């Protein structure tokens, strides 16, 4: 018996950093949890977060998400959160050690790719370990993307 899986309303992407894959060569990804307050979760559910200019940093044996923007929740009045505060990422010790080692030794960068809600309704962050691309690498990526788009058009025309 083959069951068709319905789209879960909890499992949705809230914010995506589309520029990250263009600017960085993504070598590895890891799913992390976020330490959020109640108003931040409600604001995320409204889907207006922005992680375009954010990054993750290893400080004091912990990993922090810096410069991410979660707008204030309008119905919270005085109990609201700071929109650009630093948010702690939840990882186990082995994962934190691996990430901090790659950042320190190999000169990698921790780049957030997207924030989403998983099947249990918890906010998760997809964090990438990446190396910054040079200008010629970015041009090559753009050429490949344009060629694949043009190839798709040609195949569609000729059937």
TrEMBL record:
Organism: Mesorhizobium salmacidum
Name under which the protein is recorded: SsrA-binding protein
Keywords recorded for this protein, A-Z: Cytoplasm, RNA-binding
Positions of the UniProt region annotated as Disordered: 137-159
Gene it is expressed from: smpB
Xref: SUPFAM superfamilies: Small protein B (SmpB) (SSF74982)
Family matches, as Gene3D superfamilies: 2.40.280.10
Function: Required for rescue of stalled ribosomes mediated by trans-translation. Binds to transfer-messenger RNA (tmRNA), required for stable association of tmRNA with ribosomes. tmRNA and SmpB together mimic tRNA shape, replacing the anticodon stem-loop with SmpB. tmRNA is encoded by the ssrA gene; the 2 termini fold to resemble tRNA(Ala) and it encodes a 'tag peptide', a short internal open reading frame. During trans-translation Ala-aminoacylated tmRNA acts like a tRNA, entering the A-site of stalled ribosomes, displacing the stalled mRNA.
Classification via Pfam families: SmpB
Major location (coarse): cytoplasm
Taxonomic lineage: Bacteria, Pseudomonadati, Pseudomonadota, Alphaproteobacteria, Hyphomicrobiales
Subcellular location, record wording: Cytoplasm
Keyword RNA-binding: yes
Keyword Metal-binding: no
Family: Belongs to the SmpB family.
């Amino acid at each position: 018996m083959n069951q068709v899986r319905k789209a879960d309303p909890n499992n949705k992407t809230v914010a995506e950093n589309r520029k990250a894959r263009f600017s960085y060569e993504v070598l590895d990804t890891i799913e992390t949890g976020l330490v959020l307050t109640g108003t931040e979760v409600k604001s995320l559910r409204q889907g207006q977060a922005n992680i375009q200019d954010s990054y993750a940093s290893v400080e004091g044996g912990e990993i922090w998400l810096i410069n991410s923007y979660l707008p204030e929740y309008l119905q919270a009045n005085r109990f609201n959160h700071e929109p650009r505060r630093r948010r702690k990422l939840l990882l186990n010790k082995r994962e934190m050690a691996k990430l901090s080692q790659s950042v320190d030794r190999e000169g990698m960068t921790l780049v957030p790719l997207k924030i989403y809600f998983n099947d249990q309704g918890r906010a998760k962050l997809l964090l990438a370990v990446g190396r910054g691309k040079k200008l010629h690498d970015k041009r090559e990526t753009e050429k490949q993307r344009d060629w694949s788009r043009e190839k798709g058009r040609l195949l569609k025309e000729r059937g």
